[in-house]
Amino acid sequence: MSMRHDAVIFDLFGTLVDTVTPLEYEAMLRAVASALGADHDAFQAQWRATIQEREAGTLGNVDRVLTATAEAVGTSPSYEGVTAAKEAWLARARSWLTPRYNALQTIEGFRSAGYKVGLLSNCSGEVPPLWQEGPLATLVDAPVFSSDVGMMKPDPQIYRLVCFQLEVAPERCLFVGDGGARELTGARKLGMEVVLLRVPGEEHTWFDAAYRQDALEWEGATVTDLSELPELSYNRDLGR
After folding, report:
1. Which secondary structure element, helix H or strand E, spans residue 149, and what is its range?
2. In terms of Cα–Cα distance, which of 204, 239, 227, 232 is closest to 108?
3. What's the pTM value of the predicted model, to 2 decimals?
4. The sheet that has 173-177: what strands, in order across it?
């Protein structure tokens, strides 16, 4: 049977790696605020209020994000404090980039079948350098991070960018994600075929159900494990 797609594009968090749970994220923020000498509650409130700026890259790199957030709540962090906070943040973020079950095998299967592989992630500046250290990096042809390019899903331009880097038309791409940030809707509007990954029991890891509105409303193709994707990608009945 001929290939239905020329490329598969994955979301990162909640798709190729596990979603970071609220408890894990809270622990990271406490460690970072403590290292900076900032009040935890004020720091956390400011951090959450500036998610768009962090993920669009407008706050800068990790050091600038930490410094700007601390200063916004009345703290003047020392160089040593910023360094310690950075180490605490990166240590936890590094562990969050561990591939989820079947991720590596699934991507390898697509590559063996001749597919190109892309990545689209809304993330802040700690992720791109850590990505390069992990096992997924060597398997992805075109990784695109919002903080690097100044665009975020579901902006159509970020989908066009990854397609450009893959040299594949959107209608020849399969997009796979867990439904955060209206990413499925954004991919479908551009003509991609779209699959929701919804793993039973993971709803407790969602910070905000509204952020997963696509997942809550989705009526298209759905899988519960990444290993189901290769067979589904050849299914002529896969809906748009």
Report:
1. helix 146-149
2. 227
3. 0.94
4. 142-145, 116-121, 7-10, 173-177, 193-197, 222-223
